[in-house]
Amino acid sequence: MRVIAGSARGQLLVAPKDRLTRPISDRVKEALFGSIGARILDARVLDLYAGSGAVGIEALSRGAASATFVERGRAAVAAIRENLKRTKLGDRADVHAADVLAFLSTATDPAWEVVILDPPYAERTLDLPLERLIPHLAPGGLVVVKHFWRTPMPSGLRLSPTRNRRFGETALTFLEEE
User: Fold this and answer.
1) How far apart are CA 157 and CA 126, in angstroms?
2) Exposure letters 147-158 (e unless 16+ CB within 10 A, then b)
3) Considering only CA atoms, which of 105, 107, 106, 127 is closest in space to residue 117?
4) Which of 27, 51, 97, 124 has the greatest count of CB atoms below 10 A from its CB?
């Protein structure tokens, strides 16, 4: 696993060696950032269920103003910190070792322009994380959910799907405020 583009291009990243973390493939990461395009420049990015931090670090490498990582797994948080050190992007990053729902309930940060969620595939419902996320989304903000392709997107949350891409069992759903 490596950073694909930007200032840290080619830098190898570490990932926890457990069954709970599913590192994003280069193919899915390339499709994700190809779809986001220039929206990542100077954006405040929130990486929820961050795992190794590969997505938020890719955003920083491609010009995001800052990235906030939220992950509760101890080994994953250690991997995020190591990857930020390796890429020298830690000065624009904030790492929270916390449960995503608890973080969203207490976060006081200014609104985020781009939010990426990669919840465990075992979580069959995304209603609660998305519901708690909406107050923290900047006007015109973009939410991208990486999920098991059969997991349905909730409806009635003021977020509408604008695009969906599938890669085997993995899907990317892009959501924007209605």
Assistant:
1) 11
2) beeebebeeebe
3) 127
4) 51
CB 170 within 8 A of CB 28: yes
pLDDT digits (tens, 9 = 90+) for 47-71: 999 999 999 999 999 999 999 999 9
Phi, psi of 148 (to 5 degrees): -65, 135
- Whether the model clears a pTM of 0.85, i.e. scores above it, the answer is yes
| Structural contact between residues 47 and 59, judged by C-beta atoms closer than 8 angstroms | yes
Which pLDDT score is estimated for 74? Answer: 94
- The tens digit of pLDDT for each residue in 73-122 reads 999 999 999 999 999 999 999 999 999 999 999 998 889 999 999 998 77
Angle at 133 between CA 140 and CA 88, to 5 degrees: 80
Residue 23 DSSP class:
P
Round to whole Å and give the CA distance between 50 and 93.
12
